[in-house]
């Protein structure tokens, strides 16, 4: 068991311990469709960006209930969203487009409702995670308090088992 935040803080060499991610969002288009973006973190000190996803809604992943994308050697992080206020809810991935150039990784995500994220760096890692204690289905954002919703979602402090990993 490891915390999600520990995977972000220092690159963990897990390739010998976990299976390769299949499908692989670092190499394949739209593999994160219907996953939900829960949170992002950018650390200027370490030039790292991390994206935390809800996988229980994903079309492509049968194993795991969360995912983590870590971009190291961060070169850019761009967020665009409509001016409309969105009620407390995760953003659903409608398109994910990875692009691996010779010396960098970049990805563009389109979300519902109306948001876009572009991230680029020198390295990227993707982890499929099994987070403890959050159940088999995501919370109902319309029926629960914010505190209860947060208890039923993956977070940076969640303990997890990495199931699959890929890196570029």
Radius of gyration over all CA atoms, rounded: 15 Å
Shape: globular
**Kindly, what is the distance between the CA atoms of the first and last residues, rounded to a whole number of angstroms?**
24 Å
Beta percentage is over 45%
The total of beta strands comes to: 11
Q: What about the largest sheet?
A: 11 strands, mixed
Specify the helix fraction band.
under 10%
Q: Write the H/E string, N to C.
A: EHEEEEEEEEEHE
Tally of separate helices: 2
Q: What does this entry look like structurally?
A:
The protein is mainly β and 168 residues long. The chain has 2 helices and 11 strands, in the order E-H-E-E-E-E-E-E-E-E-E-H-E. Strands 1, 2, 3, 4, 5, 6, 7, 8, 9, 10 and 11 form an 11-stranded mixed sheet that branches. A hairpin with a 2-residue loop joins strand 7 and strand 8. It is globular, with a radius of gyration of 15 Å.
């Amino acid at each position: 068991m490891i915390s999600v935040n520990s995977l972000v803080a220092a690159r963990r060499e897990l390739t010998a311990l976990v299976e390769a991610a299949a499908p692989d969002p670092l190499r394949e288009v739209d593999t994160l469709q219907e996953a939900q973006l829960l949170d992002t973190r950018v650390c200027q000190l370490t030039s790292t960006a991390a994206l935390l996803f809800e996988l229980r809604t994903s079309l492509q992943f049968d194993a795991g209930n969360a995912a983590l994308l870590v971009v190291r050697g961060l070169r850019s992080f761009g967020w665009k969203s409509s001016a409309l206020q969105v009620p407390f809810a995760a953003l659903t991935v409608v398109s994910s487009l990875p692009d691996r150039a010779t010396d960098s990784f970049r990805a563009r995500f389109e979300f519902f409702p109306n948001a876009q994220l572009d991230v680029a760096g020198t390295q990227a890692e993707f982890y499929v995670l099994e987070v403890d204690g959050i159940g088999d289905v995501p919370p109902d954002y319309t029926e629960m308090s914010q505190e209860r919703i947060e208890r039923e979602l993956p977070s940076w402090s969640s303990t997890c088992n990495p199931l699959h990993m890929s890196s570029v």
